[in-house]
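Researcher: Good morning. I'm working through a list of sequences from a screen, and I'd like to move beyond sequence-only analysis. For each chain I'm collecting a predicted structure so we can compare shapes side by side. This is the next one on the list. No need for commentary yet; just the structure.
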Amino acid sequence: MAILNFQKPDKIILQKATDFEAQFEFRPLEPGFGLTIGHESVPLVWSSQRLLAFVALQKRPVGRTYAAGMLWPRATERKAGANLRTALWRIQRLGSAW
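Model: Good morning. Structure tokens for this chain:
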């Protein structure tokens, strides 16, 4: 079994976005985690942090069921899907505020 050891990024910067995709810059320079939209730091709840980090570490697009199962392995499929939808909704809500 491989063990991954990485430092959580302290800042994620939204570079550009459309209605369908977004490009982020991750800065793993210091402990902690944050998201910057424009020049403003935006707090993220833990589930949204995990989702952004998970997606950023993938080499290709991942399906919702796979992401939900990987991020919430002890939850039922239905609960994991609900957790994923909530995390996505929170991230989307942040973007629409800008």
